[in-house]
Design a protein that fits this description.
Layout: H1 15-34, E1 44-47, E2 53-56, H2 59-65, H3 71-86, H4 91-110, H5 115-136, E3 138-139, H6 149-152, E4 164-167, E5 170-171
Antiparallel strand pairs: 1-2, 3-4, 4-5
Length: 174
């Protein structure tokens, strides 16, 4: 056997064991930030390598300060950073959503279902979800009645509580 690039005492995983190790490690990231969501979100105490202490319940801050070795966990953090750069909000939510998809993929991978088949299923689910959202979209009651909601709501804001469901671009309010 040739020279090893692993440090002494390091473990090497192959095949199914490596896949399981990566998935479990990545699913820990959403678990860390999940408890920070909502009005009763809990604060986290973070201590850096040099001893600085930060108390926060901001998912973006927590994810930015994590030191990770797991490649899938790093991807979850990158997804969160991209969300922050592009939208400025939703970093914790996107991390939790991606973690939930990963958790749902785990049993499918254990059944030897190919990852591309799982991804194709997610794409079909996305298409069905978009169709369902298009059917139940909401139009503000005080706006013009013919333009689609997204034309008036460029940031896709939620409509006021008095709005009624919209079907085929028509306002059906009283």
């Amino acid at each position: 056997m040739g020279p090893s690039v692993l440090q002494q005492g390091a473990q090497e995983f192959k095949g199914q064991d490596a896949k399981l190790s990566i998935i479990i490690g990545a699913m820990a990231v959403p678990d860390i930030v999940k408890s920070t969501l909502g009005p009763k979100g809990m604060d986290k105490i973070l201590q850096s390598m040099n001893g600085d202490i930060t108390v926060t319940n901001d998912g973006a801050t927590i994810l930015r300060r994590l030191t990770l070795d797991n490649p899938a966990a790093k991807i979850l953090v990158d997804i969160s950073k991209t969300q922050d750069e592009e939208v400025g909000d939703g970093t914790t939510t996107v991390c939790i959503l991606a973690g939930a998809l990963l958790a749902e993929a785990d049993p499918l991978l254990s059944q030897q279902i190919h990852p591309q088949t799982i991804i194709e299923g997610w794409r079909l689910a996305l298409k069905a979800a978009r169709t369902a959202l298009e059917v139940i979209r909401v139009l503000p009651t005080s706006r013009a009645r013919t333009r689609p909601c997204t034309a008036r709501c460029p940031q896709y804001r939620l409509a006021p509580p008095r709005a009624r469901p919209c079907r085929k671009g028509r306002d059906v309010s009283n």
